[in-house]
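Listing S7. Sequence submitted for prediction.
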Amino acid sequence: MAVAGDAGGDVTGLHRDMVFDQYPELATSSQLIRRLLSPLNAQRIRQQARATGITIREQPLDLSKERFTVYVPTHAPATGYALMVFVPPWDEAKIPLTWIPVLERRGIVLVTAAQSGNDEDVLDRREPLALLAAANAMSRYHVDPRRVFIGGFSGGSRVALRLALGYADLFHGVLLDAGSDVLGQQVPLPPRELLEQFQASTRVVYLTGATDTSRQEADRQSRQSLKRWCITDIDARTIPWTGHEIADPSAFDRALESLERRTPDDAASLTACRARNDSELGEQLDAAEATLARGDRDHARSQLQQIDLHFGGLAAPRSIDLASRLDATTPK
């Protein structure tokens, strides 16, 4: 077993059953709740914890019990390795062996966690495991922070999208292999500063089999939602004659090449898009506030829930203030 600390960061090759020991602040429960949940859902969790006397553990995982697999290329680029954190749909921490020549040629470290499959809890395990993997790999190997990416396959790809959005200050690209969701419906928008960073600096690459029709349609809806939220640095790639299967090395190679090919945003268009969204948000918050002022608490609560679902972190802190006022006027 390779244990963090019993080998230097210059050890290359494939390493299974690795144990890490670094607990970064970005993987604490406070950060996970703030970044990955909508403001009202985050508030409910905190309120429920206080009401029941439960203390939310800041470190949800014990790294001594977790296992990771890492591939480290033989030669590091002069500026440092790129890093790909891979979220799997399966429980085993495995890296497709056919991907290794691609990682080697491109100078990309890949890290993946065990017991992080589709049957595991997303917020309590899959998301913190991916963040712990990223932070420990970055502390252990010479990684270029501008080339830190996250990706996944199928259900793991959907988790990767959530993490890329909520941690746009860490990940600068996301590879969605046969799995995606709609922002503002299935995936809550993060706090404003993170969404704006995602809009300005994150590359999104979709990669799906040509005959995987349900995921192709999900990708289409997902891309539409990204554009709705002013995210335009997007590439969509199809793997010919392929169903719901993990990318072959050729497709994986092309997707990685695309991931690093940033497309500069149009500053004027981005500013206009943000202004449109803010105007719509303001109108809906004004309407909810007017409903509350009339004393129609049930309708005001419904309006706030829809705002929270659709606008997420963009609506805070005003949505939280309105929810608190609504709670204060509700008979006990």
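Caption to Listing S7: primary sequence and predicted structure tokens for the chain studied. Strands lie at 13-18, 68-72, 81-87, 108-113, 143-153, 173-177, 203-209, 234-239. Residues 29 and 58 are 5 Å apart (CA to CA).
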